[in-house]
Specification:
Length: 529
């Protein structure tokens, strides 16, 4: 076939000789050759071979290129493939050029980096049309995805042994399947995002901040998971009992911090030492502060007196005596010495412990006076006073558990009952104002074991003395050791990670267009390559 240079020289010669007919034919041939050479080409140069094994891009075989170059040409290959397919369909590209371009495209995609690049290019090319699908009704989404898939597969070059119609049909099928996979991913992502409740996540973060790692079973609301973990605690070598012991130790250390001491456990000795320290600190702070009796305090005390009349004469007289006891210590400027306040607070506290109708109303007087004292503390002592009051309250809340215990660790599950043992505690927990001890009580509920009759534990103990059960017990122990992989902090962190399900939601739109990407692989299988 004559080159452009040869055709141009012949055209000039015919024109110079006045040979009009030859000049016309040569001009047509020259224009056709120029059009052919200007057709879009994947490499912008002519291939040096028509087979995939010898195909070159810019004079270099794809398998000899750097990975970066392979990926770059792979990313551009979907555009080259579409242009080649359209040229083949319209007849604007010669069969030789189609074969050469197809060989180049296949050679690039046969490299690993080129294949990765081509997938990325395919997704990018189809991102715009598939992004419009999500706005359609659900049924229409399948039809649109099938149409896009069929169209995309239909404009690809047709290789030997293929038909354009079959390729389009397969593209439509896989487009619809991709839409189905997209809906599945969206559902998975939505369920994952809702699987962890906000309050559970907050407790997990609160526990982590205190050096406590809750297990997956404790974070889950699954009764089955909780029973499995509880059962594994009795299995030798499972590691679950050791994990529970570490948790309980860390929890008790946090309880000690809540009352203001650095100790592994609140033993009676620790409690007594802290009680003495609190008393000394109260004496120190009240010695240099005074209670200011404001109009607001006087009005609140009068209201309590009036309400106490409804409870009977005895109750009203007790409340009146408590109020007059405060006023009897007040100076002419409305000040009550700190020591006098402390003595009155102690006396009122003794009455509130009786549990009688009098106790309720006198308790109201006591709390009103305490609140007024909190407001009267000087700015210099305010921080120390508030800290002491909080630690004192936490210590008194835990008192009964320490008193009834064996001198060792306190049960995490028992803290909730103590912080809600009275109306004030219930109100504080309900309103979220109970502070550190309230947070620990909620964490303790997550650490609580499910109820058990003890039957499974007894059977496990009996089996240890039965030689026939030693082999199953050994297998169970091995399974329990494997449970360490599941029942660990890493899995808990994975469960609690921010943005759960966002990955699936992000990928869902792109999966719609993933179906047609399997067409090249299907073609290779049909070709036996």
């Amino acid at each position: 076939m004559a080159t452009l240079e040869q055709l141009e020289a012949a055209l000039r010669a015919a024109d110079a000789a006045g040979n009009t007919e030859d000049a016309r034919r040569l001009a047509q041939a020259y224009a056709a050759a120029r059009w052919q050479s200007a057709m879009p080409d994947f490499s912008n140069v002519q291939s040096q071979a028509s087979t995939k094994s010898a195909a070159t891009v810019n004079g270099e075989r794809p398998d000899q290129m750097s990975r970066l170059m392979q990926a770059g040409y792979g990313a551009a290959s979907p555009i080259a493939s579409a242009i080649t397919g359209i040229g083949e369909m319209t007849g604007l590209m010669s069969p030789e050029r189609v074969a050469a371009n197809t060989a180049r495209i296949d050679a690039v995609r046969d490299t690993t980096s080129g294949k990765v690049g081509s997938i990325a290019g395919d997704i990018g090319l189809m991102a715009v049309p598939f992004s419009k699908v999500a706005a359609l009704p659900k049924i229409a989404q399948y039809a649109a995805s099938a149409g896009i898939g069929a169209g995309y597969a239909g404009i690809q070059p047709v290789r030997e042994g293929e038909s354009r119609g079959e390729n389009a049909a397969l593209g439509g099928l896989f487009g619809a399947l991709g839409q189905g996979a997209s809906h599945g991913l969206q559902a998975v992502g939505s369920r994952a995002a809702q699987a962890i409740k906000p309050e559970v996540r907050a407790l997990y973060e609160a526990a982590k901040a205190r050096g406590l790692t809750l297990t997956p079973a404790q974070l889950s609301d699954s009764r089955f998971a909780k029973f499995v973990e509880s059962s594994l605690r009795s299995l030798p070598g499972s590691g679950v009992a050791a994990k529970a012991a570490q948790q309980k130790a860390a929890f008790n250390k946090e309880l000690a911090k809540a009352i203001g001491v650095d100790a592994p456990v609140i033993t009676p000795e620790v409690y007594a030492s802290k009680k003495a320290a609190d008393s000394a600190k109260f004496n120190e702070l009240t010695a240099r502060n005074e209670l200011t009796v404001t109009g607001g305090l006087a009005q609140k005390l009068h209201q309590i007196q009036q309400e106490s009349k409804l409870a009977g004469k005895e109750v009203h007289e007790a409340v009146t005596n408590a109020v007059e006891g405060l006023y009897s210590q007040m100076s002419e400027v409305g000040k009550v010495p700190g020591r006098a306040y402390q003595a009155l607070d102690t006396a009122l506290g003794q009455v509130t412990k009786l549990g009688t109708p009098v106790s309720h109303f006198v308790g109201q007087v006591k709390h009103a006076i305490r609140d007024a004292m909190d407001d009267s503390i000087s700015p210099a002592d305010k921080g120390a006073w508030d800290k002491l009051r909080k630690e004192y309250g936490n210590r008194k809340t835990l008192r009964d558990l320490v008193a009834k215990g064996d001198g060792g660790e306190l049960s995490p599950a028992a803290i909730m009952a103590r912080v809600t043992s009275n109306n004030a505690g219930k109100e504080a927990m309900a309103s979220g104002t109970r502070g550190d001890l309230g947070t620990l009580a909620r964490i303790g509920q997550r650490m609580k074991e499910p109820p058990s009759s003890g039957t499974a534990e007894r059977q496990l103990a009996y089996s240890a003395f039965n030689p026939l059960m030693w082999a199953p017990l050994a297998l169970g122990t091995a399974a329990g050791v494997g449970s360490r992989t599941v029942n660990n902090g890493a899995l808990a962190r994975l469960m609690m990670r921010e943005g759960r399900g966002e990955g699936a939601q992000f990928l869902a739109p792109y999966v719609r267009g993933a179906g047609p990407l399997v067409i090249p692989a299907t073609q290779k299988r049909r070709d036996g390559k």
